[in-house]
Every structure is written in structure tokens, then in C-alpha cells.
Amino acid sequence: MKTLEEVLKEVLEIVNTTHEIEARLLQLKSLGYFIEYNWVKNGSIGDVYYMKRKQVYRIQISVSERCGNYDKAYCVVIPASTVLNPSTEMIKIRNISMARKTRFILDESGVKNNNNSIKI
Description:
Layout: H1 4-17, H2 21-30, E1 34-40, E2 48-51, E3 56-60, E4 65-67, E5 70-79, E6 92-93, H3 96-101, E7 118-119
Antiparallel strand pairs: 1-5, 2-3, 3-5, 4-5, 6-7
């Protein structure tokens, strides 16, 4: 079992070395990662989303594209039950409810973070 930070480093290493989307998807699939084309919130490559209802983490691996009124991008989907506790890791999770759940509402300066991205 890996931590979320280890998975993120492994995925971003592939993203940084492979510039073609098709080759990137094939490499990640060959490592056993599940990839979906999902809705994302104003994100960029490397953003981690915690989906509370589905209990999964999504790591964005491509640039988002406009589909109607929303953005979609390819994401690596990781079930929360397969990663170790991420509460001590320094990653950016774009979901305020995850920060409240782990009691990390303050950023490094000790001030309440008012935007949607949180450093944990």
C-alpha cells in the first residue's frame, strides 16, 4: 500500500516525461492505474481532487477541455481505501470538506484559507 504522496510523485514523473496524451495514458494503464475522463473544477495538471461520495482521489493528468458549461480532463482514479492516511502529506487537495474532516483548515501562515485549494 502506498501513500497518496508516493502515488502522486509516480504519476507526475510519467506526466513530466511523456508529452503525448496517448502515450501517457498507455504508460499509466500499464502500471495498473485506472483512468477516466471526468469533470474537473478549474484545475491544472497534478491537482488532486477528493470525491467525498465516491470515496476516491482523482489526479488530473491532462489539460482540461471545455465541454458545455464545465471542464473535463483525464484523471487517474484511486480509491481512498487503497492509499495510506494522507493527513500528514504536503499535497494540494481541491476540496474543503476533506480539510475539515482532517482538521486542516489553516494554511502555513496560520490564516484561514478562503479559496478551494488547501495545503495539507
